[in-house]
Amino acid sequence: MTQQPPYIPPAPGKKGMSGGVIAAIIGGVVLVVVLICGGAVMVMLPALSKAREAARQVVSSANMQRISIGLQQYAADHDGMLPEAGADLSARLARYGVPAGMFTSPNPPPTGPSYFYVPQGNLEKLANPSAAVLMYENPAIPSTIGWNVAFADGSVQLLDPDRYHRTINTITLPDGTPYVPQ
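Below the sequence we write its predicted structure tokens.
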């Protein structure tokens, strides 16, 4: 024969939690978790925005690098001469493997072209190709980190806003005249 344990009644005044109290506690915990996650997202959004802008700058830099290589190939086939001001670069550089889409920034400006071309004449006669600007991004493209500038030596640099404006405002053509955008 098995013995059953004796019945022990609950202590007077002690009751278990009701379903409503448990639901309120769980609801409060869920609310706190949602608020913490929302705060984390709010903190990360500016960093994501800067990362997106940096990624666009990298793509734009790659576009300008490819266009610069096309311009150098063009000059090699034309006795060192680069295309003249106002030339349709897309048409001129297509045979050098530069697709028309390269002339559009991944973050197009609200007005004007994505990139401005600076006609530098004879590439072989430039005194300082690393300082001669061939192309620069349209400053109308919204940016907080700066804009890309392509130089005649084939390099492309991301310049902060102050250095960018100083560089663009002091462009001179090979004959010594100041550059005025077309």
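The longest strand covers residues 133-137.
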